[in-house]
Amino acid sequence: MNKYASAIFAVSTLVLGAAASQAATLTVTNVSGVWSDWTGGVKQSSTMNGDVAELRWGTPGYTKQQSGYDFAPVPTSGPHQKDQTFTLGTFTHNNFVIDKGISSATLDVTFSFYLGTDSSNIYTRSSQFVFEHWETPNVPESGICVDGKESKPNGVQVGCEDRVTPITNPRKSESFTITEDGVTRTYLFDVTGFNIGENFWTVENQKNSAQLQARFTYEENVPLPPVPLPAAGWLLLAGVAGMGAVARRRRKA
User: Fold this and answer.
1) What distance in Å separates the CA atoms of residue 251 and residue 135, rounded to the nearest whole number?
2) Looking at the whole model, is its pTM more than 0.70?
3) 1, 9 in Cβ contact below 8 A?
4) pLDDT tens for residues 29-58?
């Protein structure tokens, strides 16, 4: 190889290496949400306030405000490097004094993104989240709320906390094979769900929030769920164990 060919080869390798390095990023181009369903409550309404999806319910009390859920998306973000956790949107529970609350609500979230610098190739995915809602009595006869706190500490009416529990909070991963610095790796766009935990309690006349989070990472960095053993497998194990027991009894005899 002459020196000119060597120079061209070196430049080509540098360009390909740079392009491969740029590939290992993820850019979010759009996130949107809508409250598609709910049960229970009175005077419910689902509207959009700009990009924010709002769900309201109940006849307002002295605060003259309905209780409700909001989902505020983060429409664009990135580019995100691997192993970086980022937020796709924020869920908020607004708790006010009302007469009757919902029992559940469903949120549909759609997100679009591209990899590296190729903004012409847009991927679009969606997830559905279901929240169980417990609108607790604000003035229980015992004076003690369902969470064990007083509804009138020091004689001041503060009401009782309401509980929000994620019934469906799916983890959704999408895999992509990318060549980076000459090495082919599988990456995941891993939507980890709302960081609400098992549930949260929202104080009366207050609000509580949780973030819908995701990350761009290597496939091996995401633990796989345990694979259940089929019924036939359990029967096989039981049979093997039984044969072992018979063999031990024979040896003892």
Assistant:
1) 65
2) yes
3) yes
4) 999 999 999 999 999 999 999 999 999 999
